[in-house]
Write a structure and sequence with these properties.
Radius of gyration: 19 Å
Strand order of the largest sheet: 5-6-7-3-8-9
Helix content: 25-40%
Oligomer: single chain
Largest sheet: 6 strands, mixed
Distance between the termini: 46 Å
Number of domains: 2
Number of helices: 9
Strand content: 15-25%
Number of strands: 9
CATH architecture of the largest domain: 3-Layer(aba) Sandwich
Bound molecules: adenosine-5'-triphosphate
């Protein structure tokens, strides 16, 4: 089998057409700690379309990772309703509707690059030849064909992150959940990875929810930037990004473009400008 299908029986891309990627209605999350209740999220309303790239930005502790974890079914909301492709996050996870990539690449050191990429396929019973076909495609997609037989410790941080992204795409998810995946990279590698991610998303047509502290990163990548307010995290503003794209996504020249700077300013104002976010600590506005 060369093309994994979701357990719904529908190819993920076809299922993605059937519903919004994410729909949050009045979502709240309260953590109970020994020091008392911590309200991480309050009354979050957000709809993310199939194939849409949404960046979440906001001060440290405003609940960005919590929202991502709720979507990923790594935790559950305490109020409101959350659906992923029209069903519960649990059902979406079981149907392998999404892939996850976090700040740490989280590769298994004893497995080769190819074997790391193939791991989700192996866990879900895809046969050897199907796995080989898919991992070959993905190695090419992330530009690591020549490193298929290498082990994680033989790769740079950026290359490890590309392996993690390839692994998250292995099952052709309709939704990618990314929590500061480039946070630990140097600035040059980070910009290269952003350009590659835009290209990869244009090709895979997955929706993406991308948590970042960097305004330029959010603007370069996203169709919409969701600006969150300090705890309890709410959506302060949603900034649409209308930068020119060609079929392959966005290119490097865009970073020098006046429309890019205007969008960066717009997001910065949303973070600082209207009193929703007074102390935007932890947000990189460079
Ligand atoms: N498991 C938990 N138990 C108790 N409190 C938690 C838990 N997870 C998160 N929190 C609290 O919820 C709030 C939101 O945390 P979260 O990690 O979602 O923020 P964030 O916006 O991703 O922050 P950062 O930008 O610093 O990564 C914080 O006050 C945090 O302390």
């Amino acid at each position: 089998m060369s093309t994994p299908v979701s357990t719904t029986g529908l190819p993920p891309a076809a299922f993605a057409l059937a519903a919004h990627a994410v729909e949050a209605t009045g979502v709240g999350k309260v953590f109970t700690t020994r020091a008392g209740a911590v309200t991480a999220l309050e009354d979050v309303h957000l709809t993310i379309g199939a194939g849409e790239f949404v960046a979440l930005i906001g001060p440290s502790g405003c609940g960005k990772s919590t929202l991502l974890r709720l979507i990923a079914d790594l935790d559950t909301p305490t109020s409101g309703e959350l659906t992923v492709f029209g069903r519960s996050p649990r059902a979406a996870r079981e149907a392998q509707d999404y892939g996850i990539a976090f700040q740490q690449a989280g590769l298994l050191p004893w497995r080769s690059v190819r074997a790391n990429i193939e791991l989700p396929l192996e866990l879900h019973g895809v046969g050897r030849s199907g796995r080989t076909v898919r991992s070959t495609e993905l190695l090419e997609l992330v530009g690591l064909t020549e490193f298929a037989g290498h082990f994680p410790h033989q790769l740079s941080g950026g290359m490890q992150q590309r392996v993690a992204i390839a692994r998250s795409l292995a099952e052709q998810p309709s939704l990618l959940l990314m929590d500061e995946p480039f946070g630990a990279l140097d600035e040059m590698t980070r910009e290269r990875m952003q350009t590659e991610l835009v290209r990869i998303c244009a090709e895979s047509r997955a929706a993406v929810v991308f948590v970042t502290h960097s305004i330029p990163e959010a603007v370069f990548l996203a169709d919409r930037v969701v600006v969150m307010s300090p705890r309890p995290g709410r959506i302060a503003e949603v900034v649409p990004i209308t930068l020119t794209r060609d079929a392959a996504g966005r290119d490097e020249d865009l970073r020098e473009d006046a429309t890019f700077f205007a969008a960066v300013t717009r997001v910065r104002e949303a973070l600082h400008g209207d009193g929703h976010v007074r102390a935007a600590r932890g947000v990189d506005v460079r």
